[in-house]
Amino acid sequence: MKETNRTIKVSEHIRLDTRPGSAKWQARVKLADGSWHRFSTKTESLERATEVAMKFFYTSEDRLKNNLPQSTRKFRRVAEFAGVSETLCMRVGPCEFHGSFVEPFWI
Predict the structure, then answer these.
(1) Alpha-carbon distance 82 to 89, whole Å?
(2) Distance of CA 63 to the CA centre of its chain
(3) What is the pLDDT of residues 14-48, one digit of tens each?
(4) Which one of 69, 75, 79, 107 has the minimum C-beta count within 10 Å?
(5) Alpha helices of the chain — where are they, by DSSP H?
(6) pTM
(7) CA 68 to each of CA 38, 80, 99: distance values in angstroms, whole numbers, following the listed order
(8) H/E run at residue 96
(9) Of 11, 82, 99, 1, whose CA–CA distance to 50 is shortest?
C-alpha cells in the first residue's frame, strides 16, 4: 500500500502535515510576507503538534508587532533586520555590496 501525505488545516495560516515514512507532524505557518515557514513539531500527537504550531504562530505575530523578523531561520532575514548592508558600506568606503554576502549563509 502506498503511503500518502496527510494535511490538516488548523487555521487559515497554519497547516499540519505528515510525510510518507514518518509519523511525526510538520507544521507550516504563513508569515506576514506571504511565505510559508516549515518546521518539525517533533511529536506524533496531533494535539501536541497543534499546540506547537499555534505557539510558533503567536510568537511570530508578537515578533512582527515588535518590529523583529518573524523567522530567523535564514541569515538573510536577520541581516536585513540588522542593516548589514548599510554597515558594510559605512566601513569599507564605496559600497560594493549587492546582496551576495547574505545569500549563501544559513543559520
Answers:
(1) 13
(2) 12
(3) 999 998 889 999 999 999 999 999 999 999 999 99
(4) 107
(5) 46-65, 75-82, 84-92
(6) 0.69
(7) 19, 11, 20
(8) none
(9) 11
